[in-house]
Design brief:
Number of helices: 5
Strand content: under 5%
CATH class: Mainly Alpha
Radius of gyration: 21 Å
CATH superfamily: Fumarate reductase/succinate dehydrogenase, transmembrane subunit
Distance between the termini: 75 Å
CATH topology: 3 helical TM bundles of succinate and fumarate reductases
Largest sheet: none
Structural class: mainly alpha
Helix content: over 70%
Number of strands: 0
Order of helices and strands: HHHHH
Length: 126
């Protein structure tokens, strides 16, 4: 005979309060990416007929380099958050889910660092 009430049975099984943080990070990065995407797209469209040297000179501007770094960081973080949600929703086996999430985070960090290194290299003229 179980003397526990229905409320006692479900205590501890509810929200871990981490979903809200994930939700807000995803929305914040989306808001940051909207103006930065317009900026990068107009910049790319204006540079279609330019040569490598002109584009490199454009990237040596501190404002352009900083906006590009913010764009890269927000882009990879937002993408990682979105793929993580898909993995959590569609992979049922726990060890596979955790493995995929770790892999996605590792790949996002690796790609982000490689992109940041490329921007810094062009910015410094190396």
């Amino acid at each position: 005979m179980n003397l526990r009430t229905p409320l006692a049975k479900v205590r501890g099984l509810g929200s871990a309060k981490h979903g809200t943080q994930h939700f807000w990070y995803q929305r914040l990065t989306a808001v940051v990416l909207v103006p930065l995407t317009f900026w990068i797209m107009t910049s790319i469209l204006m540079m279609t007929s330019m040569d490598y040297e002109t584009v490199s000179t454009w990237m040596t501007s501190p404002i352009n380099a900083l906006l590009m770094l913010i764009f890269i960081g927000a882009l990879f973080f937002h993408a990682q958050l979105g793929v993580q949600v898909v993995i959590e929703d569609y992979i049922d086996v726990e060890w596979q889910k955790i493995s995929c999430i770790i892999l996605i985070k590792f790949l996002a960090v690796l790609a982000c660092l490689a992109s940041i290194l490329a921007v810094v290299k062009v910015f410094l003229g190396l």
